[in-house]
Task: inverse folding
């Protein structure tokens, strides 16, 4: 008998169809709209395998409605949408998509860095709104990236990929991480710094640390106050690591140059959020891994794990908890 699989979003048919050999598949039939919670709780009642996105909370409530659940496959590298302790307690496995989105996300970080430094979105709005009447010396002047100091908080795969790109811009690279990356220091000249020193010395601060109990609110008013008045802060990791209201206050006071944000504490961000009123905030809708090649690779990595489980084989990209 085939295992029951529920998919919480409408994925491309050519991705899903090969799994029909192993699974009796049910699927939420919307691509852009998150499945309502009540419908999700009803759908998991008899499923053994659940394929989710970051928008779907897999917690104690859901697990109490899914007595047959054995595997959760997450279409993301992060997994703060999953209560790993609740899964562990019930013996439910979970997988994610490590590795395949490293370079794509690092590219986006550099895009945010350039966009904030050179005021690119602001300049485009200036042109489209008909404000470009002449050239003058201090018109929309930005910050140089070449030769600047970048401080990376979180030196995992993506953090290191950002650091390598920064070296291509002749930037000095500081980093803070739970453990030193001695090999990367020797190979590329990256320099370890305490969080305090990194914040004080960096022209660009990039947050790439995972979201967990140790990093919630890691960058608050006190930490932001340590940064240079013309520094830029960028977050393409997870919302909730920066105190958004504290960030708004310090930007409003003119004590930071800009912020580049691909993630927010609540997603989608509310249209009346104060950060969206500031011209020096570049805000994106969580598109860090959004290239056609990478999103396809993420889906296929999930399919690989689902196929292995369907065949009775071990899954390999298990979330380590």
Result:
């Amino acid at each position: 008998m085939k295992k029951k699989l529920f998919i919480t979003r409408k994925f491309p048919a050519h991705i899903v169809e090969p799994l029909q050999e192993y699974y009796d598949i049910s699927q939420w039939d919307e691509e852009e709209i998150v499945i309502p919670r009540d419908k999700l709780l009803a759908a998991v009642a008899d499923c053994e395998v659940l394929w989710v996105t970051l928008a779907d909370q897999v917690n104690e409530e859901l697990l109490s409605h899914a007595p047959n659940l054995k595997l959760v496959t997450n279409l993301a590298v992060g997994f703060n949408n999953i209560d790993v302790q609740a899964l562990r307690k019930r013996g439910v496995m979970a997988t994610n998509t490590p590795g395949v989105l490293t370079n794509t996300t690092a590219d986006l970080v550099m895009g945010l860095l350039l966009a904030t430094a050179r005021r690119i979105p602001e300049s485009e709005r200036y042109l489209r709104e008909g404000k470009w009447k002449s050239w003058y010396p201090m018109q929309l002047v930005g910050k140089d990236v070449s030769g600047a100091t970048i401080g990376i908080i979180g030196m995992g795969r993506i953090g290191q990929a950002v650091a390598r790109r920064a070296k291509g811009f002749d930037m000095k690279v500081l980093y803070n991480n739970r453990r030193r990356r001695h090999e990367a220091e020797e190979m590329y000249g990256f320099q370890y710094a305490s969080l305090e020193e990194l914040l004080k010395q960096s022209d660009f601060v990039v947050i790439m640390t995972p979201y967990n109990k140790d990093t919630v609110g890691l960058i608050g008013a006190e930490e932001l106050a340590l940064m240079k008045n013309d520094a830029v802060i960028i977050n393409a990791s997870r919302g909730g690591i920066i105190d958004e209201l504290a960030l708004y206050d310090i930007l409003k006071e003119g004590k930071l140059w800009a912020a580049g944000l691909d993630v927010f504490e609540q997603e989608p961000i509310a249209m009346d959020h104060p950060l969206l009123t500031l011209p020096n905030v570049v805000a994106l809708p969580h598109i860090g891994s959004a290239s056609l090649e990478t999103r396809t690779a993420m889906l296929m990595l999930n399919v690989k794990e689902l196929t292995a489980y369907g065949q009775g084989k071990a899954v390999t990209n298990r979330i380590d908890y």
The CA atoms of residues 2 and 130 lie 61 Å apart.
